[in-house]
Amino acid sequence: MSGFSNSPKLLKSGLVLIDPVSAHVQRIISLQYNPDSLTRTLQVQGAGGEEGNRSEAMRFKGPAVETLKLDAEIDAADQLEFPDQHRAVVENGIQPQLAMLESLVHPTSSQLLDRNAMAQSGMLEIAPMEAPLILFVWSKHRVVPVRVTDFSITEEAFDPNLNPIRAKVSIGLRVLSVDDLGFAHKGGSLFMSYLQTKERLAAKAQAGSFSTLGIGGL
User: Fold this and answer.
1) How many domains does the chain have?
2) Where in the sequence is the domain holding 134, given as residue range(s)?
3) Is residue 162 in a domain?
4) 3-class SS of residue 210
5) Residue 120 resides in a domain
6) Contact 158/108 with Cβ under 8 angstroms?
7) Is residue 197 part of a domain?
8) What is the pTM of this model?
9) What letters, b where the CB count within 10 A reaches 16 and e where it falls short, cover 20-36?
10) Residue 136 class from Cβ within 10 Å (0-12 exposed, 13-18 middle, 19+ buried)?
């Protein structure tokens, strides 16, 4: 029996696209390798604002605005070692994986064609095209609705046909809260679950004491 039989299963981080109306899962995107780091920034939504309104100094207007930054690596080296088993990679490199990620920041071609047809028919008001709801998944404790705010690809190696075979994708995300989606929206309920999970985790942290702070009390 292999000495690695008891190794823990490695979970993958990724993104889930769901229909914003029916909540039907449209696509699951698992990252090939988990990013080495995840940068999270929280901007406090205080009622007092920068003006320093004293009557509102201790009040929140809503949840903090959280943004996420990560770099994902995609590499075809392992698949190219077994070309007969990975013909799509041999023929296209990692372009399918890149195209799948790029679909997060474009409307679909059918949406664009429908919009053009409505414009040609003389419709005066055309609603903006709705994107799927994107969920960022980083373990069971972090399943949170997001919007892609910035996206860049650095292609680092190519095959003889100029198909990219190694790339780094940098993704910026903004967490969507109930302020953005409302409580009745599927994404709003997922944000509330995310916030409640944080509260449960915070309750597990060991509380400090006045003595550790070097004071006897307040």
Assistant:
1) 1
2) 14-48+56-108+130-202
3) yes
4) coil
5) no
6) no
7) yes
8) 0.85
9) beeeeeeeebebeebbe
10) buried
Residue 58 neighbours by CB under 8 Å, 6+ apart: none
- The one-letter amino acid code at 37 reads S
Q: How far apart are CA 92 and CA 56, in angstroms?
A: 57
Q: Which residues pair with 29 in a beta bridge?
A: 15
Look at residue 69 and tell me if it is in a domain. Answer: yes
CA Rg, the chain, in Å?
23
DSSP 102-123: HGGGS--HHHHHHHHHHHHTT-
- pLDDT tens track of the chain, all 218 residues? 444 455 566 789 999 999 988 889 999 999 999 999 999 999 998 876 565 566 677 888 899 999 999 999 999 999 999 999 999 999 999 999 999 999 999 999 999 999 899 888 887 777 888 899 999 999 988 999 999 999 999 999 999 999 999 999 999 999 999 999 999 999 999 999 999 999 999 999 988 899 998 998 88
166 phi/psi in degrees, rounded to 5:
-150, 135
Sequence-ordered list of residues with C-beta below 8 angstroms from that of 122, at least 6 positions apart, any chain: none
Backbone phi and psi for residue 132, each to the nearest 5 degrees, phi listed first: -65, 155
Question: CA 31 → CA 13, 97, 102, 143, 206, distances in Å?
Answer: 6, 9, 13, 15, 34
Q: How many CB atoms lie within 10 A of CB 123?
A: 11
